[in-house]
Amino acid sequence: MIERVMSRKSQSFSLSAYPALRLRRNRTDDWVRRLVAETALGVDDLIWPLFLMDGRNRAEDIASMPGVERMTIDRAVDAAKQAASLGIPALALFPFTETALRTEDGREATNQDNLVCQATRTIKNAVPNIGIMCDVALDPYTSHGHDGLLNEDGEILNDQTIDVLIRQAIVQADAGCDIIAPSDMMDGRIGAIRRALEDAGHKNVKIMAYAAKYASAFYGPFREAIGTSATLKGDKRTYQLDSRNSDEALREVALDIAEGADMVMVKPGMPYLDIIARVKDTFGMPTFAYQVSGEYAMLKAAAQNGWLDGDAVMLESLVAFKRAGCNGIITYFARDAAKALTT
Ligand code: PBG
C-alpha cells in the first residue's frame, strides 16, 4: 500500500519539492504553529532593570524612556513584589546618585550603605525569592561619568580601576546581591572579582559578565536615567568594543569564561543578534542579551506615535533573542512582557 502510494507519487512529482512540500501546511492554524514552534519566550527569561533614587515614596519619569521611572527604595520593593508575583526571576538595580556624591574617584561605589546596597538589602528582606543583580562599574558614581578611574591625560586606568571594582563587588555581595554584573569592560576584572568573592566567602554569588559590551549610541536614554549624559566627558571607545568587530567579541567572552564568569551577556541586543548567535554556538554558555535603553526608546516612541503595534513588536523583539540563542533577556519591557505572556 505504502509502496503503491510512493510509486504513484514519484511518477507524478518529486517528493522533495512543491507540491509535495508545502511549508504553509504547518502554519494553517494556531495549534499547529504552537506545536512546531522552535523557540518559546516565557516569563522565566526576563530580568527587569530598575532605576533607584534617594528619598521616600517618590518616582520620576525618564523622558526618553516612556513608562520607565526612577523610584525610591520603598517603591522598588513594591515593584519587586509585583515582579515576583508575575514570575519574573530577577531584577537588575541601577542608581541615580546625588551630584554631591559623585567624585573623581567614584568612592561612593564602595560605600556599603550606598543606594544600591540599601535597596538590595531591603528588597532581599521583603522579597527573598527574587534574584538581585547589581552592576559593577563606576559611572553612576564618578564626576566624569566614566566606568573607571582617569589620569590627568584622561586615560582610563585599567588596573587601578579593578582595585575599586573588587571593593564595589564585595559591598554588593555583602548586601545580598545574587549576581554581580561587571559592565565596565576593564581587562582582567572578572578573574579579580571572582578571587575576591571566593576570599570573602561568597562562593555562591554568580557573575554575569557584560562580556561583549559595545561602545554604543543606544545607551543614550540610560545615561539620562542615571544622570551621566550631562557629565560624561568624551566617549567609552577605549574600553568598550568597536561595533565593527565580531571575532574580538568572542575573545572577550572566552576570557571572561576562563576567568570565572557563570553567565555571559551581549549588549546592546537587537543590533548585535549575530554576536549572540556566535557566542551561544561557540561556548554553549548561559547567554543573555541586554535589550538596552535606546532599543526600548525606539520601539516605545514608534508605538506611541501609532506607527507600530507596541505589544506585538515588544514580543517579537524578545522572541528574536531566544531564536538567536539567548537563555534570557535584560529588558525594560520585562513587566509588560510578563503580563502579556501570562494573560
Ligand atoms: C554602565 C552601564 C551602561 C548600561 C548598563 N550599564 C551604560 C554605559 O556603558 O554607558 C547601558 C544600559 C542601557 O542603555 O539600557 N556601565
- The biggest beta sheet, please? 8 strands, parallel, barrel
CATH architecture: Alpha-Beta Barrel
| CATH hierarchy class name | Alpha Beta
Bound molecules: ligand PBG
Nearest-integer average pLDDT: 95
Structural class estimated from helices and strands? alpha/beta
In what range is the share of β-strand residues?
A: 15-25%
Query: Termini separation (Å)?
Result: 48 Å
Strand order of the largest sheet: 1-4-5-8-9-10-11-12
Helix content: 40-55%
Please state the overall shape, judged from the principal axes of the Cα atoms: globular
| CATH homologous superfamily caption | Aldolase class I
Query: Which radius of gyration do the C-alpha atoms yield?
Result: 23 Å
Q: Total strand count, please? A: 12
CATH topology: TIM Barrel
Total number of helices = 12
Order of helices and strands: HHEEEHEHEEEHEHEHHEHEHHEH
Number of domains: 1
